[in-house]
Amino acid sequence: MIGLLLTVLAVQAQTARKFTIGLSDDGKAKMTCYIPTNPSGMAIVGVPGGGYSVLSNSHEGHQASDWLNQQGIAYFVVDYRLPNGDRSLPIGDVEKAIRIVRDSADVWSINPHSVGIMGFSAGGHLASVISTHSDFEVRPDFSILFYPVISMDERLTHKWSCRNFLGEEGQKDKALVRDFSTQNAVRRHLTPPAIIITANDDRLVPPVTNGIAYYSAMRSVGNDCSLYVYPTGDHGFGFGPWFPYHDQMLQDLGNWLKARQVPRKDAIRVACIGNSITDGHGIDMATAYGYPALLQKKLGGDYWVRNFGVSARTLLNKGDHPYMNEMAWKDALAFKPDIVVIKLGTNDSKPHNWRHGAEFRQDLEQMITTLSPQLAQLAKKKGKKAKTVAPAKPRIFLCTPIPAFKSTWEINDSVIANGIIPVQKELAAKYGLQLIDLHTLFADGADLVQPDGIHPNGKGAERLAEIVCEAVGGKM
Asked: Of 280-284, 294-298, 375-379, 444-448, which range is least confident?
């Protein structure tokens, strides 16, 4: 009996503070905060399930606090408002919770770059919505999805979760059903890493059309995702000790959390902007083996490199797929980078895009000055007597396209060399940017590209990372 009491007291001692914060003016939404005694810097926002009709916030909420605090993880359970067809209510409540956690990071000894979300069942759906749809500032850094509802097609999932989230009319809107079936909203490089925990015999939310569908979507685009399917357990086990694989699940989840590589709070932020070459087209698991991922390894822990590349995109705003219309561009700005590496122009050389080539200069200038409005002011002062000002932020590196060794997809190396690169050189000089001349540095690199003659292979991605690493001042 005494031993049991000591164990209970030891567990309780892991939580230094417990308190509640209101999230909505009507008082219906709140967040219960569990701050650990020995914080690791990691935080998790918990989102209980309940089919969007009730909140199962015991074993799918508060019951996780002891274990998480023992790991040094700050934990925040959100009692969100139920949608009743108005999905903005639960989405807004959880987004506000994440914003508060990040805004209070210093006070609660949290690394704002290590704030995850953990959702159960319908709460797993809500967590996946926040992970795929929300703005960068409130998107979590990782997702833990317990037996999640993913599909909003009631034929494939939990019918009442769909109806309560979308409403009766929403179920008739095929575009809305598709959009909030979150396996369709996964974005390469932008959707945070995830772990999915489910049971093979789940009869309420079929794993194949829900959790496994999300895993498949994540793996298909090369995003970091792990899947744990336990033999039995049915639905709704959460952190309940009755789950047959409870201890194993905690071990698996703990190992996954410990393996996460978290950037330092003060890391130098590097945004890699570009098309499919930055994205890592043709390189399996480009999130680990594309040039930005290799650049991260070369630069080391003092830097935080993010890949904002999107395949087929143009710098030209009148091109077939303008980069500045993309979620990745919005995310890159919200990332607030210290260094930006821009590698665009290859797709602009296609005939149907280059017919707008006269606007390439103004569109590149728009990108540069949007990233750093200070550069526009410095450019105006060139040649005039002015007080010394600090260097503009972020530092922008402008990369010329690598050579097009073949005219695949009508990419034209002559346009690259004689139309695009001269403009890049001109604007690099005007704004004091460093030009990385990949066109020259890859001139003899036919062995560095894939058979299409356009995209770097694994060796080429390594070479590209080396060149950029040297340019931004990192050690190789």
From this structure: 375-379
* pLDDT at residue 427, rounded to an integer: 96
Mean pLDDT of 412-430: 97
Q: Which residue has the tokens 């001269």?
A: 422
pLDDT above 60 (res 288):
yes
Q: Could you check whether the bond before residue 83 is cis, i.e. omega within 30 degrees of 0?
A: no
Q: What are phi and psi of 340, to 5 degrees?
A: -125, 130
Do the beta carbons of residue 92 and residue 100 sit within 8 Å?
Answer: no
pTM, rounded to two decimals: 0.92
